[in-house]
Amino acid sequence: MEDRQKSIVVGITGASGSIYGIKLVETLLQMEYLVHLVISNAGWRVIKEELGWSTSDREELLRDKFGSFPGTVVYHPVADIGASIASGSFLTKGMIIMPCSMGTLSSIANGTSDNLMARAADVMLKEGRPLVLVPRETPLHAIHLENMLKLARLGVRIIPAMPAFYFGPKNIDDLVSFLVGKVLDNLGIEHALFTRWGDHNEQPGE
To answer: Where along this sequence does the record place binding of dimethylallyl phosphate (predicted)?
Structure first.
């Protein structure tokens, strides 16, 4: 039987920053999670453009990129509205959409459930399970902000793709890891992806 506490839904949309979602999947798999992965059509386009991955055979690509990790990826096409994660009776720890486009955020905020990504997020809301969205857009206009406020009032964790610099990042991977770590913090998942504030200043015995 699948362990609910080791099963999590990850969505990757067409917002810039697909590297965030890929790093998140890799981190969860390294922790031996079962990742139910949904990638929108625009998400696949951005993965190809930003990471240079060939997406002609999507399932083969995922096996090649993630097959060596101790965890498992279950890929769900975004049009498969009958997938397991579309039902509230299917138990998972929660869902993370990283990065989250404004279109997907709007769909969730307005309950349209017009594809598997939005439906799975709607399931999290109706079942009271954790839902974390990582929007990546700038500048933000009033509709974007109103949709975020609506979801925040429903308990959705909104974690914009805003990396910090207080921990002394040396490269892009450090910045990506910081944001992935912040997402995992909000799901209560322990990690060592970045140095926390104060940790580098603590002296033995203090």
So the answer is: 166, 182
pLDDT at position 199, please?
Answer: 72
Per the annotation, binding residues for FMN are 14-16, 40, 101-104, 136
**Tally of structural domains, the chain:** 1
Which residue numbers in the chain have pLDDT < 70?
1-5, 200-206
- The answer to the question of residue 73 being in a domain is yes
> Cα–Cα distances in Å, from 1 out to 6, 25, 72, 86?
11, 22, 14, 19
Quick: pLDDT tens for 31-87. 999 999 999 999 999 999 999 998 889 999 999 999 999 999 999 999 999 999 999
Domain that holds residue 86: 4-201
Residue 196 lies in a domain: yes
In the annotated binding site for dimethylallyl phosphate, the residues are: 166, 182
Give the residue ranges of the annotated binding site.
14-16, 40, 101-104, 136, 166, 182
Q: Is residue 206 part of a domain?
A: no
Q: Would the pTM of this model clear 0.85, i.e. be above it?
A: yes
Contact 9, 98 (CB under 8 A): no
User: Which helix (H) or strand (E) segment is 198 a member of?
Assistant: none
Angle between helices 18-30 and 41-51 (to 10 degrees): 90
Q: State the CATH number of the domain containing residue 8.
A: 3.40.50.1950
Locate tokens 């964790």: which residue? 157
Angle in degrees, 0-180, between the axes of helices 172-185 and 18-30, rounded to the nearest 10: 60
